[in-house]
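[Meeting: bench + compute handoff]

Bench side (C.D.) handed over the final construct sequence. Compute side (W.E.) agreed to return the predicted structure before the next meeting so the bench team could plan truncations. Sequence as handed over:
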Amino acid sequence: MSADQVSGERGVRVGAPGAQAVGLSFSELARPYEGEPGLDFVVRASNRRLRVETSVRTWDGDGLGAFLFSLAEDFRGWEGKRTWRSLEHDLSLAAEHRSGGYVHLTWGIHDRAPGEEWCFETTTVHAAGEDMRNLAADVHAFLSGAAGGVTSAGR
């Protein structure tokens, strides 16, 4: 893994590179009110032909890192979907462990401008175990503001 520049800032990139693959990036981490637990960042889904983004508001990350770490710890698998969502439902995540030892993460980017609601979803695939641990560590480092974040890629 290496540090990654995302839109001129350090951040986390999720997903495989490629013209057709949709990658997600997390950047522009900010605390809008000093001394308060509010933590905002921008999430972008993009490839050569697509770019969707929204601002995500969380309460100290809303446990996203912990959620991803829990998926990594259950590398042997689980039944059904496990879900997570941000404080204002700007970002959602559904995880399924599938045969062959892979975790399918469906990321939902939501925006609720009055009368203009929309949702975009994309799925990234990660090897259970170490790949998921690396992703969880990268997201945790990003949300804690540690060294500007690092890169994590699925397939």
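W.E. noted at the follow-up: The two ends are 14 Å apart (CA to CA). C.D. will use this when planning the next construct.
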